[in-house]
TrEMBL record:
InterPro entries from the UniProt entry: CdaR-like_regulators (IPR051448), CdaR_GGDEF (IPR041522), PucR_C-HTH_dom (IPR025736), PucR_C-HTH_sf (IPR042070)
Top-level taxonomy: Bacteria, Bacillati, Actinomycetota, Actinomycetes, Kitasatosporales
The protein's name in its UniProt record: PucR family transcriptional regulator
Segments forming domain CdaR GGDEF-like: 119-237
Annotated coiled-coil segments of the chain: none
PANTHER family in alphabetical order: CARBOHYDRATE DIACID REGULATOR, DNA-BINDING TRANSCRIPTIONAL ACTIVATOR ADER
Entry's family note: Belongs to the CdaR family.
Domain PucR C-terminal helix-turn-helix: residue ranges: 287-343
Region forming the signal peptide: none
Length: 356
């Protein structure tokens, strides 16, 4: 497709300036430079390409080159200097307009992302704005959130690296990648789980082993907020439960919110089952950690001892001490489920650091 023809209005007064400069040897005045900048801004807002505009200026200079009679070439030098000044001022105005456009676009994008992830704004209006950024909110979307050792902004190398990898792999897909509160956020159609899996892989590598959580797909503008909240909750849960998985899926963690849905009942269970551990030397935390590792190791004493850097004999003593204090035997299948549920509840409720 041929580029649109550049109108003469964008070069208004250009030939007259060159003619006058050839006769006087002067430089462009402040008003003339400001007029070139204004025309440059107008050209940028109209949508012309800077390269084509520079070529047009050079072609006009050649076509309207003033008659030079000076034998020493001083007039020619003056005209060339005027061409340089005019194009430079024009380009400055053009670039300034482009920067303003980029800032406006970025501000609109940030406002849209804030409204989308926080559930603000009218949902119908939000859905209309979403099409501008490649999202169809009438369909299901899922959100992945990645954290690293530091807070990130969109200009940092980590988000740019992840974005480049996603664009190279999924060019043309409806994906929105951004940063929010120092975390990387990726929004993708719920029907394309491969996008978020790949994002998780790239973000984990780019953040030097950071953690990624993926929310479930949900429909509508409110669905993005729901999925985003699920991903954040999964990250918070992983922190409190000391989960080792680098990639967490909210769908795999649904048992935890179920367990804490009746918070008071869970608090009562923790107090009744684990409260006696406070009487142990060193408090409840060492024995609570022993139980947590014991259950994570499948109740295998040798593996638990290895993970805790204990001898099997020392581990056996700790388990017996837990039995003595609580009345529940961790090795007894009849007691194990209750104890394990209480241990999970303790982690979810930050016990014993927080009183229940």
């Amino acid at each position: 497709m041929a580029e649109p023809e550049i109108p003469d209005e964008l070069l208004a007064g250009y030939a007259c300036i060159l003619t006058d400069v050839a006769a006087t040897g002067r430089r462009l005045t402040r008003d003339e430079l400001e007029e070139r900048r204004r025309l440059g801004r107008e050209a940028a807002e109209t949508g012309f390409q800077l390269r084509a505009l520079v070529v047009r200026h050079l072609a006009a200079a050649r076509a309207d080159w003033p008659v030079v009679t000076s034998a020493d070439g001083a007039a020619t030098d003056s005209v060339l200097a005027a061409v340089e000044q005019a194009i430079d001022a024009f380009g400055e105005g053009f670039e300034r307009a482009q920067r303003m456009t980029v800032r406006r676009e970025e501000a609109a994008r940030r406002e849209f992302i804030d409204d989308l992830l926080y559930g603000r704004s009218d949902l119908g209006r939000l859905a209309e704005r979403a099409t501008r950024f490649g999202l169809r909110l009438s369909r299901a979307h899922a959100v992945a959130v990645a954290t690293g050792p530091e807070a990130y902004t969109e200009t940092d190398s980590v988000p740019r690296t992840v974005e480049a990898a996603l664009l190279a792999r999924f060019s043309g897909r409806k994906i929105l990648l951004t940063t929010k509160d120092g975390r990387l956020v990726c929004i993708a159609p719920g029907s394309q789980p491969d996008v978020l899996r790949y994002f998780a892989k790239q973000a984990h590598a780019a953040t030097d082993g950071g953690r990624v959580a993926v929310g479930r797909p949900h429909y509508g503008p409110g669905g993005v907020v729901h999925s985003y909240d699920e991903a954040l909750d999964a990250l918070d849960l992983a922190e409190r439960m000391d989960l080792d998985d680098p990639v967490l899926y909210a769908a795999d963690l649904l048992v935890y919110p179920v367990l804490t849905r009746d918070r008071q009942a869970m608090a009562d269970l923790v107090r009744s089952q684990l409260g006696p551990l406070r009487k142990a030397r060193g408090g409840a935390e060492p024995l609570l950690k022993t139980l947590s590792v014991y259950f994570d190791a499948g109740c295998v004493a040798a593996e638990t001892a290895r993970r805790l850097s204990l001898s099997v004999r020392a581990l056996t003593y700790r388990l017996e001490r837990i039995h003595q204090l609580t009345g529940s035997d961790p090795s007894d299948p009849m007691h194990r489920y209750t104890l394990q549920t209480a241990v999970i509840g303790a982690r979810l409720l930050d016990w014993p650091d927080k009183e229940l």
